[in-house]
UniProtKB/TrEMBL annotation:
This is SHOCT domain-containing protein. InterPro entries: SHOCT. Pfam families: SHOCT. Keywords: Plasmid. The lineage of its organism: Bacteria, Bacillati, Bacillota, Bacilli, Lactobacillales. It comes from Pediococcus pentosaceus. Residues 161-188 form the SHOCT domain. It comes from the Bacteria.
Amino acid sequence: MTAFEGFLFSHGLKDKLVRIADEKISGWQHLYIALQGGVKEYLYATDDAIYIIKKGYMTGHTFGDGVYRIPYQNITNVSVEYHFLSGYLEVSTNGMQTEAKSYWSTDRKTDPKKAPNCITILNKKDAQGFQKAADKILKMAAEVQNNNRNTSPALETDYTDELIKLKDLVDAGVITQNEFNAKKKQILGL
């Protein structure tokens, strides 16, 4: 849509990757990662989430595509497993059980080509790029999760509890309404 920030993108495929992002990811503003996996699989990182897009028979999509969105706040881990000739990137979230996978597997549960949270890797050079992507995604997820913790509802509850106690003091005649108003402004940072 607007800017390709290009932290990582598959060499020589920038136009193709941006076209796919335009077709499958609505409203993206920035792409930080755009990588192509082994068999019509694509990994994207935008401002708010990562997307795993899978196309074609090898990924279990005879007709249509699979577009899997994973918000950074839900990501618990991103790992890259690469062995002799193949491997995969796997995104872990709360509620999504991880299981060892093999590119050569015919079992849907252990085939990374068909798993919605995996991208297959077919060579060592790509594995290095996907490892950089995993590191970047984990960093972005940690930033989002830290920001969410700093604006948690627990902080708002502390204000509410303190204001209720102060209001009780006004009702009991211990402090005046003016003292309550001054303290309320102080608590709320006004």
